[in-house]
Design goal:
Layout lengths: L14 E4 L5 H8 L6 E5 L6 E6 H8 L18 E5 L4 H11 L3 E5 L5 E5 L1 H16 L15 H4 L6 E4 L5 H8 L6 E5 L6 E6 H8 L18 E5 L4 H11 L3 E5 L5 E5 L1 H14 L26
Parallel strand pairs: 1-2, 4-5, 7-8, 10-11
Antiparallel strand pairs: 2-3, 5-6, 8-9, 11-12
Helix pairs in contact: 1-7, 2-6
């Protein structure tokens, strides 16, 4: 087999190590870093990697009501690990991962030393590259339909969030955050009217890292309350400008009757930036017209006789 190999991917990001005797509070501190998506648990005597704990798995375990201080990471970690050599061709790696469907993929050198972690994001990147290669023989890109350029028509505001009651506890929050598409909890105000605050994934992890009892701690005691509310018909450009200026904990979108329409997530904000960038790109890629080459100067007159 030949072609590009796994070693071409960025394998040194998105993970952190914890010792074999680490507890779930230690895991929460590691996952609280924005770049870390999975924690790799060291083996006995802190050698090698014995298992992994992803953000999603962490939330599922927390949902069972464990004590994060007394619960050791190694007792709840995922252990179905796939190990691949860094010289494995990408197409073969995709086949093996799809067939095995492991909890985590570790990349090793020819000497069986740890090189890095192949994340789900890395895997999707490889799949997308393969898809693009397969689509090269297709027809040219279609012209996208016109899109209204306000917040509600340009962005999907109905995903990534769930509601909890004002008296919800942290074990409730962990259950609602467990689905992979949920990134934030919207906490109802008293008497379940309106929204009093939000609890994002990073904030949830930070609070868990302090060793709280999830069965006794109210979400509303740790929720973020700097909430920006904008109208659903706000133009994208204006919405981005307001969010940059205010830098809120969360952005809620309301109708003209002040009713909740949706949640504008960080991913939606990044999508809005991309849409605005695309607006500035010309539709036709016309090459610059070079000036005509000037004709050569006339020959000098002959010398006088």
């Amino acid at each position: 087999m030949s072609g590009p190999t796994v070693s071409l991917l960025e394998l040194r990001d998105e993970f952190a190590f914890v010792r074999n005797d680490a507890n779930f509070a230690d895991v929460a501190r590691s996952l609280g870093q924005s770049s870390v998506k999975v924690v790799l648990v060291r083996g006995k005597k802190n050698k090698g990697v014995a298992g992994a704990i992803s953000q999603t798995h962490f939330l599922k375990v927390c949902a069972t009501g464990i004590d994060p201080v007394s619960t050791l990471a190694r007792t709840k970690m995922q252990t179905d690990l796939l190990r691949l050599r860094d010289d494995t061709p990408l197409d073969h790696a995709v086949e093996v991962i799809q067939e095995k469907d492991p909890d985590a993929v570790l990349i090793l050198s020819g000497e069986n030393k740890f090189v890095g972690y192949l994340s789900p994001e890395d895997f999707r990147e490889v799949q997308l590259a393969q898809q693009k290669m397969g689509d090269k023989k297709g027809v040219g890109p279609s012209i996208p339909p016109p899109v209204k350029e306000d917040v509600s028509h340009s962005l999907d505001l109905g995903d990534e969030f769930v509601f909890v009651r004002n008296d919800a506890i942290f074990s409730d929050a962990s259950r609602t955050l467990a689905p992979s598409h949920v990134k934030v909890i919207l906490v109802r105000a008293k008497k379940d009217k309106g929204i009093a605050g939000v609890l994002t994934e990073p904030e949830f992890l930070k609070v868990c890292a302090t060793g709280i009892n999830p069965n006794k701690t109210l979400v509303n005691k740790h929720m973020l309350t700097d909430i920006l509310r904008i109208r659903s018909d706000t133009p994208l450009k204006e919405a981005v400008k307001i969010i940059e200026e205010k830098d809120p904990d969360a952005v809620l979108v309301l109708s003209d009757l002040n009713r909740f329409v949706g949640y504008l997530s960080p991913a939606d904000y990044n999508e809005a930036l991309e849409l605005l960038k695309k607006k500035k790109v010309k539709v036709f890629d016309v090459p610059q017209i070079m000036p005509e080459i000037a004709p050569p100067p006339p020959p000098p007159p002959p010398p006088p006789p």
